[in-house]
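Homework help board

Subject: predicted structure for assignment chain

Our instructor gave us this sequence and asked us to write out the predicted structure in token form, then describe one feature. I got the tokens but I'm not sure how to describe them. Can anyone check?
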Amino acid sequence: QVQLVESGGGLVQPGGSLRLSCAASGSIPSINDMGWYRQAPGKERDMVARITSSGTTNYSDSMKGRFTISRDNAKNTLYLQMNSLKPEDTAVYYCNLEFFRGWTKYNYWGQGTQVTVSS
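My token output:
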């Protein structure tokens, strides 16, 4: 019954900013990893950034320090602050959640939110 719902996408001009949100609901262990991925038409889905429950982050080199991932553990909500956006950032951005129950790994994805960077 776990669900991830992304929001905050839209059209923005080059150099602009957007803040994406991902609301997670359901039975989610307190120890988990969440992340943002993106996929442009005809390309692979690539990792943007990941963050653990304890706040450890991991960013893709392609972000070049422009993006910041954060989370509110009490609300099970994930955020992505995107600054200095470029046309090549245009993609569908997906929220990801991973956790273990015993020896079994669970992996969930949101529906995605479209980010378009264009003048």
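Reply (TA_rk): Your tokens look well-formed. For the description, you could write something like this. The CA atoms of residues 19 and 77 lie 13 Å apart. That's the kind of observation they're looking for.
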